[in-house]
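Subject: sequence -> structure tokens, single chain

Hey, anyone have a minute? Need the predicted structure for the following. Not urgent.
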Amino acid sequence: MKKTTLLILVLVVGTFLAACSGNGNKFDAKVEQEKATKVMNGVLTSFKDEEKLAEANTSDKANIISWNKIEEKNKSAISRDLAKNEQRKLLYLLTFNRSENLNGRNQSNILFTHNTKIKNTSFNKAKQTFTFDVERSGFTHKLITLEKQKDTWKIAKIVDPE
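Reply:
Had a minute. Here:
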């Protein structure tokens, strides 16, 4: 009797563990693409207000201020490993930087861009990453790759299309 009860208990626990482990590791590309797209759209629309983002004497100072604001607003969507060059590409895509001559000195203004959209999305099955083909105003064109980091989709790479 004890052996039968123990055997049933082992079978029930084994079945439960097998069911749990099978579902947890399954990667549903369609569901994950929806999650990644939501993250990407959140980044692209976070500066839709058309207000000034940063003002500084030089564009370099304005870019630093702007990047800090972008990173703060999108902390959960931007990978810590995003390279400085890739940060600049994302900053350029999300903002419009211009310099004005005010009273004999230059002042750099970075304005919100409101017409940035996703043209296409591709999935790398081997790496399990999504790459978004993003365009601004019909002329700025970047490929932004998101990878899953600790159950969250994050921007990991930004490149110019070839």
